[in-house]
Amino acid sequence: MSPLRRLLPDGFTASLLATVVLATLLPCRGAAALWLDRITDVAIALLFFLHGAKLSREAIVRGATHWRLHLTVFACTFGLFPLLGLLLRPLAHTLLTPELTLGLLYVCTLPSTVQSSIAFTSIAGGNVPAAVVSASLSSLIGIVLTPLLVGLLLAVQGGAGSPLEGVRDITLQLLLPFVAGHLLRPWIGGFVERHRPLIGFTDRGTILLVVYAAFGAAVVEGLWRSTPILALVLTLVLDALLLALALLLTAFAGRRLGFARADRITILFCGSKKSLASGVPMAKILFAGHAGGLGGLLLPLMIFHQLQLMVCAVLARRFAAQANVAAAPAHGASPGTGG
């Protein structure tokens, strides 16, 4: 793949950009906006129901024995990132609009991604079973921890309500469908496994739906009039700084704690990423009725999402190349040693 091709957005990112343009030109208004809001609620519940049906209890049991790795990933996701958010908050408050500052802090509260964490771990030669468990449990634990972290990080900014109310709302709208899907797994698990593209379609479709509704409402409220171009550029810079710090510190933690190479790769990819698939639906619930709307608040997450995909793709290929180089001498020597 050429260097230029690597810099081009993937299909889903292009769809996100097209959705933002559509919401800018043709935002939903009035009664149509109310109906769209109800439809997105149903789509979000279906999304988490299907994720619950997909998660295997056997995988959880298999991976639970690697508790040091999982604790390290969770500490990075729900401990390191909030600390980095606190560190960057004064800078963000100075450089960004209030909505973009809230959005940057919100990124720091989210769980890890699932699909891309596992995919990059696999490409790089990491511990894939551990990545499956860490990423899946991170998404599940985030249903409770993210609202609490939102309350701690964002309340001082005036951007969120009571953390306990957030936990309650997330439990009712996300956790209950997830648990229902998981309990029904013995009956519907086979169907879900045979139709995995259905979950991918639901993931992407739900995100695009919520983004369209959020940006449409924000455009009606004057999003682009109150968001300077320079603030968007600086959001990209701060997102890149946040990702760089997370990658450096997760890599350092893996080495410092004495993990094997495969486990360090898993910690790097699972502990440095944030989930767009969880973040968009959660934002709709946690910031319902927020005066500034969701459009500006979601921009830092969308930018961070694309950055982490591009950077981690490069890192994964580099790890894979290093493994191939390390294995090459052994492969070259085997004919001679075998006579």
Automatic annotation (TrEMBL):
GO cellular component, one term: plasma membrane
Keywords on record: Membrane, Transmembrane, Transmembrane helix
Membrane-crossing segments per the record: 7-26, 32-50, 71-92, 104-124, 131-154, 174-193, 205-224, 230-254
InterPro entries: Na+/solute_symporter_sf, Put_Na-Bile_cotransptr
Signal peptide stretch: none
UniProt xrefs under Pfam families: SBF_like
Protein name: Sodium-Bile acid symporter
